[in-house]
Amino acid sequence: MAAPPFHILGMFLQLFVPLASGVTIVLWELAPEGCPTPVSTADNTLRAIEASGCDATFVVPSFATQWSHNEEDVRILAKLDRVITGSGPLSDEIGEHLVNHGVKLTTAYGGTEFLAPCIVDYTKNRGPHEWAWTEIAPEFPVRWDPQGDDTFELQVLTNEHYRPMVINTETPDGPAFSTKDLFIKHPTKQGLWKIVGRLDDQVTLGTGEKVNPNSIELAVLESPLVTGALLVGRGRNQVGLLLEIVPEEDFDSTDDDSLARIRNLIWPIIEKINAKTPTFARIYKETIIPSRHSKPFPRTPKGSIQRKQVEAVYEVEIQRMYAAIDEARGGEVVNLPKAWDRTSLEIWLVDMAKSLMQQPEIDISKDLFEQGADSLIATFLRVRVVSAMRECGEPNISTVSADVDPSIVFTHPTIAALAKYLTDLVLPDAGSAESARNLADVRIRDMMTLIEKYTSDLGSQPIPSENSHSFRPPKETIVITGTTGTLGSYLLAQVLQDEKVERVWAINRSKLDDPLATRQQVSFEEKGLSGELLQHEKLRLVESDLGEPRLGLTESLYQEIANTTTLIINNAWRLDFNLSVSSFEPHIRATRNLVNLALASPHGAGFVRTIFISSISALASWPLQNGPVPEGLIEDPAFSVGSGYGESKYVGEKILDIAAKKTGLEYTVIRLGQLSGGNNGFWSSNEWVPNLLQSSAQLGYLPDAQRSILWVPHHSAADAILDVSLQKSSKGSTPGESSLPPALHLVHPRPVPWSTLMKCISTTLADTCGIEPLPLIPWTDWVAKLESAEQTIMQTPSSASNPRAYERIPGIKLIRFYRTFGMGMSSTDPDAQPPLPESERGVAALEFETTKMQSLSPTLDKLDPLNDDDVLKWIEYWRSKGMFTSPASHP
Fold it and tell me: What pLDDT, in 10s, does the model give residues 561-571?
């Protein structure tokens, strides 16, 4: 009765089901001629269920939600043999409430193109509390296509007995209908699947993160103030939430006080949602947009919200909200600082951080990113700071609000440092001499402080005796960290196939509701690596926190690893060039903890070899006049000043160096350059190179540069690292003296001119994607075209509010990076451009010695230059992920 008879769902329930099963269907009585046709509501449907003596009912989720709030309605439902819900998602809270009160609830799944292949009765595998999980009939031909984020798209196949009414895709298992419905597996019960959204409903942020909106939107509907919710944010850096407010609520969307009142009323539910949501998908007060009563959400005949139509209706409001955030306006400042002295600011900033980070306590001297903050929280904290400065009523403070640096939270990542920065800004006379200190000096001090912090107690460790490393087992036992990443996956795949390796401990951080085994499997599948390798008996997958004592492991497991390990590959590190060095302290602490693991070996400190995966960005300020960077340790920290990422790698290198000199630890640093696509072309489309190429396809030009490309394919980099790591050890006689050089460079020994590779890319794009050949223009001209494209989008209302405009030219969000990266790349004449500070020049212009690395790695020594075949693999992979499919729109 709840389904309209003109809809396919109504036809199926009211016509096909009784014909096939013989059940009796209850329908509305035909309306007399001239009278309106009855419209199903939650109230009249339940009354009809009770009056007709129904045994079971199919209801839409909105009806079930309304009934759940009334005890008598729930008692009526509990008398039925079955209550089936479908055609849309029902929130977990509502479903559990009904089940806990005796309602025999189950979920149906189907589609117009393939009908309903699910089992709706309870089975041995599925009881009342699995009401939300779907069980597909075993004889029904389906394929579950992994999406790389623990979700799977259901694809309906054909066989000799069945063919869906629509075939719209080809799969490895044959022709199929792509439902675009996304499911997750039941964590323990085989064959149970839960729908969590649709491919076309997913909100893909500008950061590349994907958010399934359904669970958030459903949870918001628990509020009696809300009749509809819609998550937005495609192509943006954070999500926003549109709320349809009940007509009875007196609300003026143009009044700031009214807006704040609605946001505060809904906030307790948002806090509950945020507690279960990844940080990149959290809702902030600034991103909540209540609807206008004059603009209700467009809906289908079934009552479902029409997503695209709602976004079109609220296009202006959405654009206004994001513009306010970008310009640091519209901050939801609950209260202003009591004063603008340092102590008052610390108290106020702690309150703001608690609210944004959803944490009860914040340590003012501890890095905010270490306490759970991310770039999104940093953005909103800055928004609130600037808003408070503008609204404080003090002209001098309002004026300097424009001087607040966009990266303020990254460069001052503790509450104490942030408060001091703001005090110095608004009360310049209160600043100390340190506030004027050269930024490079501050960064050097920060690096040296961290080095001292994590090496000061190493002198207490005994230096091993000469025979402490004389015994070597015939096979290696390896600890590898960060194996779910790209390089880590290739390293893991290789060592699992190596006969010289007896045991592999793959250690990764734990994720709530995201098992390591699943993450590792998905990572292997993405890169074309055999998932069967993960079943190898030598593999041990370990979830831990490397920053905790004993790596966060039990004493017994830690001792087992320490007693058997012969090699540690320290590969896990956060890649983010926005953060300051202090924000990498968890990784620096993990490096020291892995040193402790090596020193815990019963065979002595020199028994375990440690390989530290560093980066050439650790030498970002190497002077060009000094020539190629040598393969060795660099003592002067000034050469590392640049990004916090590179500085943190320098700190890690020094920790190992000092540990070796004090304890006899054997180690080698391998500094990586840019890595390119792997065997199957896998190269994350979120990285700067694919973003550059996607943008170039839209701009109609590729950037040229008078530099060489030193990129190494991921799989070759992994092989080269293992060439070095698995070298036979023969220690020297001096503590800290190793059979291997202390530092090596892993960049391509046969560089290719930038222009040569770009021309190859242009030709390949033309041949495979039908894109007109892209001419090369100077780098600075290309950046200017990118900036012009951004201005065009911003000045065109229909484009400015359309996230897809930015998706077509993703390089817009990396303009600052490309501008800096290209400095010094457009000319070979050093006098043709103004000199740049080394820390701003980056590593693009540097050359690196590789002689020692080549002597130890046959893989690198024999590595062919990048060529047409490599380029073809990359482009075919990117094209399979949807790149280069939009028509170009040259500015």
Answer: 999 999 999 99
Note whether residue 334 is domain-resident: no
pLDDT tens per residue, range 116-147 = 888 888 777 788 889 999 999 989 999 999 87
Q: What is d(CA 699, CA 393) in angstroms, rounded to the nearest whole number? A: 45
Same domain, yes or no: 506 and 596:
yes
* Residue 230: inside a domain: yes
Classify residue 443: in a domain, yes or no: no
The span from the CA of 711 to the CA of 676, in Å, is: 6
Of 400, 433, 466, the residue at which a domain comes to its end is 433
Distance CA 215, CA 619 (A): 45
DSSP 451-518: HHHTTTTGGGSPPPPTTTT----SSEEEEEE-TTSHHHHHHHHHHHT-TTEEEEEEEEE--TT--HHH
Mean pLDDT, consecutive 10-residue stretches, the chain (891 aa), reads 61 71 76 68 86 87 85 93 84 87 92 84 82 91 84 91 89 90 88 83 68 84 88 81 86 73 87 83 87 86 79 87 64 71 87 85 86 78 83 77 75 86 72 48 88 87 51 88 95 95 94 81 92 93 92 93 96 83 91 96 90 94 89 91 90 96 94 94 89 92 90 96 84 53 96 94 91 92 89 60 64 77 50 39 76 96 95 92 67 49
Domain that holds residue 404: 342-433
* Together in a domain, 580 and 723: yes
Cα separations in angstroms, 338 against 329, 346, 354, 426: 21, 11, 17, 14
> b/e per residue, 664-699, with b = 16+ CB within 10 A?
bbbbbbbbbbbbbbbeebbbebebebbbbbbbbbbb
> Phi/psi zone of residue 795: left (φ > 0), alpha (ψ -120 to 50 degrees), beta?
alpha
Q: Residue 491: which of 664, 683, 717, 308 has the closest Cα?
A: 717
In a domain, 451, yes or no: no
Instruction: Look at the block and give the residue holding tokens 């309903």.
Output: 116
Domain co-membership, 741 together with 771: no
- Entry pTM: 0.60
Query: H helices of 365-414, where?
Result: 375-391, 395-400, 408-411
Return all residues near 373 (Cβ < 8 A) that are at least 6 apart. Answer: 353, 356, 357, 381, 409, 413
Distances (CA, A) of 554 to 193, 479, 564: 34, 16, 16
Rounded to whole angstroms, the Cα distance separating 813 from 816 reads: 8
Pairing of the two strands 152-157 and 174-185? antiparallel
Whether 81 and 87 have beta carbons less than 8 Å apart is answered as no
Same domain, 602 and 730: yes
> How large is the greatest C-alpha to C-alpha distance in the chain, in angstroms?
104
Residues 320 and 397 in one domain: no
Q: Which amino acid is at 500?
A: K
For residue 216, what is the domain's CATH number? 3.30.300.30
d(CA 229, CA 90) in angstroms, rounded, equals 14
Per DSSP, the three-state class of 75 is helix
